[in-house]
Design goal:
- With 167 residues, the chain is of the alpha+beta class.
- It has one domain: Nuclear Transport Factor 2, Chain: A (Roll).
- It is built from five helices and six strands, in the order H-H-H-E-E-H-H-E-E-E-E.
- It is globular.
- The two termini are 30 Å apart.
- 19% of the residues are buried.
């Protein structure tokens, strides 16, 4: 293993990923969105070998502004999610470092299972999540920030209902 990988605190990275899952499970979307950098993107490809979120259709591809709008809509008093809450349980495992550009810029991949209960139905989603992380030191915002997240569902090419949550 290279020296830079040896210096990344994998337990701290895992704790960060667990915090992200906990914010989603508890519906704390304000805390969740603050884990993302200002230039962040969130991508859910429609095929496992997809390389381009802009030139091909995706299940989801959003920048931080669109993510903030979606979070506001989730919590709006007239939103369907207000009438019928979305309940989720994330399980994250097999967290591993992929690429280390520097101590402050690296990529991790993890596996996940997500159970979602919404409008009287329970659904199971599973796949891998690839987080491109930066470590920043800026006042109270010191810590990891996600600048790109890719979520690859096992059944990405299958027909899906509307997906009312983030993974």
């Amino acid at each position: 293993m290279n020296k830079q990988k040896d210096n990344i605190d994998l337990r701290a990275v895992e704790a960060f990923l667990y915090d992200e899952a906990d914010y989603l499970d508890s519906g704390n979307l304000d805390a969740w969105i603050n884990l993302y950098s200002e230039d962040a993107t969130y991508w859910m490809p429609v095929s496992e070998d997809q390389q381009d979120p802009l030139g091909e259709i995706s299940i989801l591809y959003e920048n931080r502004t669109l993510m903030q709008i979606r979070c506001l809509n989730f919590n709006h008093r007239l939103a369907p999610s207000f009438e019928t809450p979305v309940r989720t349980s994330h399980i994250i495992g097999n967290v591993r470092l992929l690429e280390v550009e520097s101590m402050a810029d690296f990529t991790v991949r993890s596996n996940f299972h997500l159970v979602m209960y919404f409008q009287g139905e329970q659904e199971l989603f599973a796949g891998t999540a690839t987080h491109h992380l930066r470590f920043i030191k800026h006042g109270r915002r010191t810590g990891f920030r996600i600048y790109h997240k890719r979520v690859d569902l096992i059944d990405c090419a299958a027909p899906h209902k509307s997906i009312p949550i983030y993974f």
